[in-house]
Amino acid sequence: MTADVLWTHARLWTAAGPLISDGVVAAKDGRIVFAGPASDAPAAARVIDCGGRLVTPGLVDCHTHIVHAGNRADEWRMRLEGATYEEVARAGGGIVSTVKNVRAASEDELVRQSLPRLDALIGEGVTTIEIKSGYGLDAENETKMLRAARRLGRERPVTVTTTHLGAHAMPPGQTDKDAYIADVVERQLPAAHAEGLADAVDAFTEGIAFSVEQTRRVFAKAKSLGLPVKIHAEQLSNLGGAAMAASEFGALSADHIEYLDEAGVVALAKAGTVAVLLPGAFYFIKETKKPPVDLLRKARVPIAVSTDCNPGSSPLTSALLALNMACTFFALTPEEALLGVTKNAAKALGRDTDIGTIEAGKSCDLAIWNAEAPAELAYRIGFNPLHSRVWRGNV
Ligand code: DI6
Ligand code: FE
Question: What is the model's pTM?
């Protein structure tokens, strides 16, 4: 076998086995054809010497709202001065203020404002990013957001997966939640699906958003369209949304889950649903309840970590800082955290046969670091050790 390119002298952390101190990755036509010790490596026309640097899978940010317009710095300032979330919302802040900005923005403008956030993530070795809608809250504006998300994937060397989150909040001026959910089911999801704009469907199941029963209606529609589901659940209270999504719909992931109980953990384990931890939101809204990491470990639920990049609860565009926070706040080990932005994040997107580990057959997405040990990636705060990045076999 001959390959197109070899990356040699790598300290190779594949996310699928132990660190290989003198490793080689070989690629052909953008796919990995070999990953292992130098002694077994094939030949190739082109050789890139990694100089002993750490090589990991390209990072996967599996939960973001990076497509949005404007920011909520004023709301944050009010919260710092003691205002509650409700007071902020009554003063015109909260999700609704972002909805107004997104509705007023063109697709071009959404792309323009979102590119710097995407570039920050790419600059840290991210090669796949999930992007949600959820600030349009009607058929026209939700599809506009998803089109902008797809365009980001054409403007940069990164894989974008899209998630429809029409069931994120109530649109400004509306109060009938059942009627709004009917709009999501009857108009928004079919419109997005008809244009191939949604790879998955999400909902925010919470007292301030939608009930378990309303979420179920959205997911039943997703299922009828052949779309997988994921859920924002147990972020502020324990409504049982995660267990419902896992046991009734085989959800790809349940995200936030600070208030998840033992029965919920068991449901995730049974369904193979990934637990996505979002330490940026935990930090930014000063949450004190921590997700049940020990229970998740005992039940062998795969744990992912993501930025949740959004203007309200997690204005975070650093996957590396999310790693550090997952270790300091939630007591993940550095290796668990790193699995959370590689192998397990890929599983949270249903893409684990294609990305997330450095193994033959997968897309050649790599991050090459000025570091020796995987733990260093989670250890530093506000320092970016990325040396270079490979997406689909291209540096
Ligand atoms: N949970 C969150 O943390 C974000 N959405 C959600 O369902 C908040 C989004 C925002 O405040 O803009
Ligand atoms: Fe979110």
Answer: 0.97
